[in-house]
Amino acid sequence: MFEFNDLWKFFFAFFLVLPLVTIVHQLGHMFFAHIFGGRVNMHIGSGKILIKVGPLHIRRLYFYDGWCEFITLTKRGLKWQLILIYAGGSIFNIGSILILNGLIFFREIDPNIFLYQFVYFSFYFVFFSLFPVWHGENPSDGMAVWNLIRNKAFNNNPKM
Fold it and tell me: Which residues contact 34 (CB under 8 A, 6 or more apart)?
C-alpha cells in the first residue's frame, strides 16, 4: 500500500531516476548515429529550453519525455545502420540493466532503491520504445525498425 512515507520514493523516482534512464536511452541513439556519421541533438524534457550545451538541450519539464532530433542520420544510410540507430536507446537501456545486475551479482555494489527503480524504468523504456506504434506523426523506435525491415518509407527525420 502507498503511504505518506513513500512520497520521497515517488519524487526520487520521477524527478531523478526517470530522467537518468531517459538520458541513457537517448545516449544510445546518439552513440549509434554518431559512429555512422549522423548529427543529433538530444532533448531531455518538454517545454522551453533551460540549458543548451552543445547537442544537449535540457528543457523546463526535464522529467517528462525526451527525444533525439536528427540533423542527419548517416553518411551512407544503410538499413542495418538505421536499425541500430533506432534500436540504440533500447540497446543502451538493456546494457545498463545487465551491467547493474552484474555488479550486484558479483557484489561490487549493494542493491538499493535507486538501482531497483533504475532497472524498473529501463525495462519500461525498452518495452514502450520497441512497441511498434505511431505517436502522432512520429513512429516508436520499434515501428521505425519494423518499417525499415519492411522497406516502408516514413518521415526521414523523426523524433526518438
Answer: 40
The helices-and-strands tally (H runs, E runs) of the chain is 5, 4
At 89, list the grid cell: 536507446
Q: Is the pLDDT of residue 160 over 60?
A: no
Of the pLDDT bands very low, low, confident and very high (cuts 50, 70, 90), residue 67 is very high
On whether residue 63 sits in a domain, the answer given is: no
Query: Nearest Cα to 93, choosing from 65, 131, 125, 141?
Result: 125
Burial of 1 (0-12, 13-18, 19+ CB in 10 A): exposed
What is the count of structural domains for the chain?
1
Residue 49 within a domain: no
Structure confidence by residue, pLDDT tens digits, 72-102: 877 777 899 999 999 999 999 999 999 999 9
- Spatial separation of the C-alpha atoms in residues 61 and 55, rounded to whole Å: 18
